[in-house]
Amino acid sequence: MVLELLSNKQLLKNDFLRAARKTLRTCQIFGTVPWYVDLFGSCEYEQKQRKLGSWRLWCVQGMNALYSIGLAAMVLTATVLQHYEFDWKMPFMTRMLYIGEYITGNGVVLLVLIGCHYQRRYYQQFAEDLLAITVGIASCGAAVDFQRIETIFNRLLVGVTLFFGTGLAVDFLYNNRSFWAFLRSSSVYILSNIVNVLGLTQYAFLLYFIFLFYSDVNRLLTSYAHHVPHDKRYARRRTVAAGGQENTTIATTTLLYDYAHLVDLLRAIHLELNELLEQVNDCFGVLIVSTTTTAFVVLSLQFFAIYRATTVRAWDVADTLLLVYTVLWIVLNSAKVLLILYPCHLVQKERDRTGPILYHFSPHVKDTALNNALMKFSNQLLHESGHQTACGLINLEMTLISTMVGALTTYLVILIQFDTAVTQGQADTNSSAMAASSPGS
Fold first, then answer.
1. Which H or E run contains 375?
2. Is 361 exposed, middle or buried (0-12, 13-18, 19+ CB in 10 A)?
3. What three-state secondary structure class fits 96?
4. Which residues, at least 6 apart from 90, have a Cβ–Cβ distance to it below 8 Å?
5. What is the tens place of the pLDDT at every residue in 388-439?
6. CA 346: distance to chain centroid?
7. Exposure b/e, 275-284, CB count within 10 A at least 16 = b
8. Torsion of CA 326, 330, 336, 342, to 10 degrees
9. What's the rounded Cα separation, in Å, for the pair 106 and 108?
C-alpha cells in the first residue's frame, strides 16, 4: 500500500512538472524565474549539485543575478534615451503621461526581476502544496487534468509570442527600419512588458490550479450527495415472536462507504486551498497593484493619443503605424488586467459554489458522523467567505473593470479639456503676435 502511494505520488509529480515545464523555462529565459529553482528539491537534483560543487552553484546564482541586472539596466537606459531623444517634442500633458508610464513600467520590471530572487523559496513551497493537494484529491476519487493545464498555458505562451512579434514588426516599421531606434523602443516597451506578462502568467498558473482543485472538490461533493441516499448497507436483525418463532427483519445501519471521512478530507482540502490562495495573493499582491496602476496610466495615455491622432489633418504612413501600435498597447494592458482578474473570478465562483452543494445532501440520512462532517464543513465556509484582495487595496473581482472604465472616461475628459484649453491659448497667442507684427498695427 505504501509503495502504491509513493508510486502514485511520483506519477503525479511527473505530470505536474510536465505541465509546468514550458512555462517555467520561458520565464527563466527572461529572468522572471531564477535559473537554479528546483520545484521539488529531488534527490537527483541534490546529488547533481553535490557533484557540481557549491562554488559552481554560486557561479550560476551570480550569473543569474548579473543577467537580471543587465535586463533591468537595458530597460532603464533605453527609457532615458527614449525620453531625451523622442519625448522632448511632445505636448506637456502627453509628456507627463509618458513619464508616468516610464516610472511605473521600470518599477514593475525591477519588482519582477528582483522579487523572483527575493521570494525564490515560494516556488518550491507552492509546488509542494499543490502536489500534496493533488494527492489528497486523488485519494478521494478525482484527478487533476494536467493535460488541460499544459495545453491552456502553452497556447497562452504562443499567443504572447505572436502578439509581441507583431508589436516588434510594427515598432521596426515605425522607426524607419533603424536598428538602434528599434532596439531602444523595443527595450522600453516590448521587453518590459514581456517581463511583466510572464510575472502575471505565474500568478495565473497558480490560480488556475486552485480553480481546478475547487472544481474537483465540488464535483466530488455533488457525486456524494447523489449517491448517499441510494448507497446503504443492510444488516439482518433477529427478533423472537410471542410464540417462540424467530422473525428476521432487514434494517439499515450505516452507509456502505465512509462518506463522513471523504467529506472531512474534502473539507481539509478546501481549507488548504483557501490558505494557499491567501499566500499566493500575498506573494503577488505588490505586482498586481503595480500592474493595475501601470495599466491605468498607459490606457489613459493611449486613449488620449487616439484622440490627438484623430485631430491630425495631414495623415501619413507613420500616423497609421502609430495608431496600430496604440491599439496593440490598449489590447495588451487590457489583457494584463484580465490575466489578473479572470482567474480570480473563476476561483471565487467555484469557491462560492461549495456551500449550496452541501445543502444537496439529504437531511433524512441517519448517519451521525456524516451530519457532523457536513456541519463542520458549513461552519468552515462561513469563515472562508470574502473577496480576494491585493495588499488590501484592490478587490480582485470583475467589477474592477467597470470601475477602471469609469475612471478612464473621467480622466480622458479632463485631458481633452486641458488639451483644448492649451491649444486655444496657443492659437490666441499666435493671433496676437501676428496682429502685432502686421503693417497697420
1. helix 368-384
2. buried
3. helix
4. 98
5. 888 888 888 889 999 999 999 998 888 888 877 766 766 556 555 555 555 5
6. 11
7. ebbeebbebb
8. -160
9. 5
Residues 6+ apart with CB under 8 A from 1: none
Whether 272 contacts 133, CB under 8 Å: yes
| Beta carbons of 237 and 251 less than 8 angstroms apart | yes
Distance from C-alpha of 144 to C-alpha of 138, rounded to nearest angstrom: 8
How many residues make up the chain in this entry? Answer: 441
Decide if 351 contacts 207 (C-beta within 8 A).
no
Q: Are 100 and 106 in contact (CB under 8 A)?
A: no
- Return all residues near 153 (Cβ < 8 A) that are at least 6 apart: 19, 22, 23, 201, 205, 208
Q: What is the dihedral of CA 36, 41, 44, 47, to 10 degrees?
A: 70
Residues 131/45, Cβ–Cβ less than 8 Å = no
Give, in degrees to the nearest 5, the angle at Cα 126 between 120 and 129. Answer: 145
Residues 6+ apart with CB under 8 A from 264: 373, 376, 377
Return the closest-CA partner of residue 279 out of 128, 148, 143. Answer: 128
pLDDT in tens, 154-177: 999 999 999 999 999 888 888 877
* Cβ partners under 8 Å of residue 140, min gap 6: 220, 262, 265, 266, 269
Residue 217 has pLDDT above 70, yes or no: yes
Is residue 239 classed as helix, strand or coil in its secondary structure? strand
Grid cell locating 78 = 533605453
Which residue's C-alpha cell is 523572483?
116
Q: What residues contact residue 7 under an 8 Å CB cut-off, 6+ apart?
A: none
Residue with cell 541534490: 46
